[in-house]
Amino acid sequence: MKKYILSLAVVSLFYTNSNACAWSDPDYEYFNLFTQSIIKDKSYLPFLHTYSSRFFGHYNPSMIPDDNIETWKKYFNNQLDYAETQNLVYKLSLNDLNALKNGTPTNPLLQKLGTGFYQKYKEGIDYLIEAKYLEPYMSINYIESENSFYYNRDENRKNATSLDYNKTIAALTSLYNAARNPEIKQRYGYQLVRLNHYTRNYDSALQAFKTYIEPIKLKGTVYYMALDQLAGAQRGLEMNGDANWNFFQVFMNSKDRKESAFVSMKLSDTASFSNIMKRANTNEEKNMAYFLLGYEDFNNPIPIMEKMFDINPDSEILKVMAVRSINELERSYLPTYYYTSDAYGRVSVYRGNTETHNSKDVASDKKTTEVKEVKEEKISFWQKIVRFFKNLFGGSKSDTSGDGNKADQSDDELLNNPNRIPFYTTGYSGYDDNTKDYLDDLEKFTSKAKEKSKDEYWQIADAYLKFLKKDYKESTEILNEIKTTNPEYLEEIKRMKVLNDIVSQPKIDAAFENHMMKDYAEYFMEKEVKMDTANANSYYDYYGPAPSTADFLKDVMANRYLLQGEDGKSFLMNNTLSDLQYNPNSSLVKSVEEFYRKPNKTQFEQQIIAKNMDSVGNIEAFFNTIYGDRAMRLADFGKAKSYYEKVQKFGGIPRVNYDWSEKSGQTITPKQYASSEYNGFNNISSLVFGHNVWESYQSAASESMKSEGYSDFPFIKDNMNKLELTDVLIQLKKIGNGNDEKAARANQLIGNLLYNTSILGYYRHLFVMDIDNSNGGKYYFWNNDKGNPYKYYYKNFMDTSYIEPDNFDLAINYYQKALKLSNNKEEKARILFQMASAEQGKYYQYEAKAPKDFDYSDPKWSEKEDARQKELDNLKNQKYRTYFAQLKAQYSDAETTKSLMGSCSYFSYFMR
């Protein structure tokens, strides 16, 4: 087999830091249990940990104070609140302010302030009038170079060069000289520096700063606004070292300009932060330089944090570094998805909490082997690519075997599989050795910091790290000792106490469920989440709400129930009852039904779990249809009838329609089945007893299937429901007990139905709770034969498939009876071909489970794969072509055989 080279365009889809999905958002791949934004200085919010964008954006921008507004608020003697000041400075029009100056204000805010307001703050209002006049022009003119990319910019857009430069400079200089208030005078100086910067008069900008800013001995907000403009002009003059240092000063001394100053530093000097470190003299400057160095190179920030701690253990930016480190640990310890891949790169179950069992629950040899076989291997990037495409284009083999029952995994097995087990598994305290070392080092640091710093933050951080180490008792003790009035700290402490309580609970019983409903109901009761369309930085963007504490606790509960053998409750913690249709395996369905019928449910069971059964209209009909379907697949027609008889007023398998329009967007509505449409119970064609003319699942039944002719069996109707179908089968089975041609025909029809409703048949959807035969996970051999994939709970239930495999021998046995009783040569040829087709199904099942002791990283992969395929082909011909061989030997001259050779390519190939 050849190894194919993939184009770079294809490869780029997979080459990401977080996982193989370039479209995923890494900030939504962990649970956010420790709230980064509890830092007190909100001006550092953009520098919290994120992989999704250049800066952290999961906060309301209004949380960062605007230095300029706070300065104006103070100038107006706090006569206006923050919002009113913001309105006055940024939103009121030039006409509004001129009306105030003329004593005829019409704006409600200005009327509220009264006519004396202008006289009291005349210099400030006059400055705002001038600033509002200049503001539309305050951008630098774009100059396209020969190396520029295409730049789609409105050529008529105003910029600083649109002003009369000399006239504007003269006016600002005059206003500067006339102003008496030093702060207002400095603001005119800022406008002079800015105008020169934006008109690319860089030397004049530097001179303006020296002339108009520095002589005024104020180093407040306006000074750093002007310094920001000076640094921009210095960068224009390629004075990168000085520009970088001044941007650093802006970063250090402003609240709302940190993000832009950081970007400007990066643009000014490729070695920006190292050079800043060389120029830092004061402890504050050194501390900030260390922060920027650590922020840029975050592989192991603890050595940097140690240096920052030595300078100032109460530093707010030290807490920023610590919370980033905690967040990094969270991403390793608390991912929302639990990935495990078999040999073809297929992703299985959600990563979540699990408890191991006592040593007496050691697995059988078979199951122990299974656990070891699926141990995660480190695979190369190219191997992942090939595995992905094998899966995408129909790979059908798996290296795993056995049933993998979660209830039989011993402590030792789980501990030997660290890459497969979540952090909160009993007896396991780390994601891998490196992460565990990092956690230990960070814990040592926070323990030291909490002893020296007066901020309760360090106690909270230390308690959280104890939680990650699963020392829930000590974590809670630390939390109980914290004395604080900070509302954000209090909320984090409350949440962490809940986490410690629930995660440390080894068994969930009725008493604990009552405790949760009494004390923690808010974490389990679903709340309506609305999109925050007005705030682009909101969590509630394209991906919806970020994973939360409530999501985490729900997963913990789901895992506890599964390990307690309460699979039904585990399933309903994360899924609705209607989801069972996608993987209706018998044991899970039975457990869900047992919960449904459980009397005296606790309040938690009623309000949190049972509500997820509301997605099915007639629950009794839903369960009985599933049970009847399973009995049909086992050829137990009498048992199937007993279930189908209980199916009353079945509205159809619950599905939804997704419609989209330009006007209303996407709308989701329940599917309404037409009266003649198959809905999971009604409208089954008599062609289900026929044989396929060609293998085409997408074609109409009349094109793919052909009737055998049912004149001997008038009770077979053209259209039946499942109950009627069982009556037909029961009658056919009774007739099939005879010894004549009619008995042969009856057995053949039963065999046809069993084959046609198997994974290979046109009607493969009839008895697996599906509404058509279109391809899907439930129709893959490797999904049905590899065993139960739900190791920890049923989160993301529909991301993988598990249905009990077909028993092709059931169909073959009926065909054997038909072959024995039939005296018609053509019929015998047809029956043998059907038997041969069913035998192929048995081979596919074997192939799906066939062991494979090499992978794509093996340098001799092609050679070994070819040898393996040859071995499988030989085995197929020796053990799984019995009826083909009989057909070729005894009936090669039959008209039926000749016809089959013309319509079935693989049969024609075999008959040569």
Automatic annotation (TrEMBL):
Q: Which UniProt keywords apply?
A: Signal
Q: Which domain of life is it from?
A: Bacteria
Query: Any signal peptide, and if so, which residues?
Result: 1-22
Protein name as annotated: Tetratricopeptide repeat-containing protein
Instruction: Record the organism.
Output: Chryseobacterium contaminans
